[in-house]
Amino acid sequence: MVTMSTIKNQRRDLFPGALEMMVLHTLRSGPLHGYAIARHIRQFSDDLLQVEEGTLYPALQRLLREGWVDAEWGLSSRNRKVRIYRITAAGRKQLQHEVSSFERMLTGIRRVMRPAES
Predict the structure, then answer these.
(1) Which domain holds residue 31?
(2) b (16+ CB within 10 A) / e for 51-70
(3) pTM of the prediction?
(4) Contact residues for 86 (Cβ-Cβ < 8 A; gap 6+)
């Protein structure tokens, strides 16, 4: 589950596809293993977004099946065997599509949330 912590520590699920979009975006800067992806999302969201392992790894498997990421075995900085993920050209194209869709959705939400004009 990807959750967003609120001020009162309530948790909220994100919209479908948000995790995949964030993973692809994270991998644009270079290959990473799963824990590093989750840590990147947490750090860059100022600890607002928490990605649980039980959600991240199935998402990475979906991205592999779609051909949006590749993976190979490597070693972590702590010398542990880890699977390292890298975005593919198809993944970059999908990310561009997802970001465009997200921006359109966000525009719609902003319009709905805009104060009524009198």
Answers:
(1) 2-98
(2) beeebbeebbeebeeeebbe
(3) 0.81
(4) 27, 30, 31, 69, 70, 71, 72
- Give me the number of domains the chain comprises: 1
Residue 10 resides in a domain: yes
The pLDDT tens digits for 64-105 are 999 999 999 998 888 999 999 999 999 999 999 999 999 998
In angstroms, the CA 111 to CA 96 distance is: 23
First to last CA, the chain: 41
User: The domain that contains 81 carries what CATH number?
Assistant: 1.10.10.10
| 26 inside domain | yes
Q: Please provide residue 85's backbone torsions phi and psi, each rounded to the nearest 5 degrees.
A: -105, 145
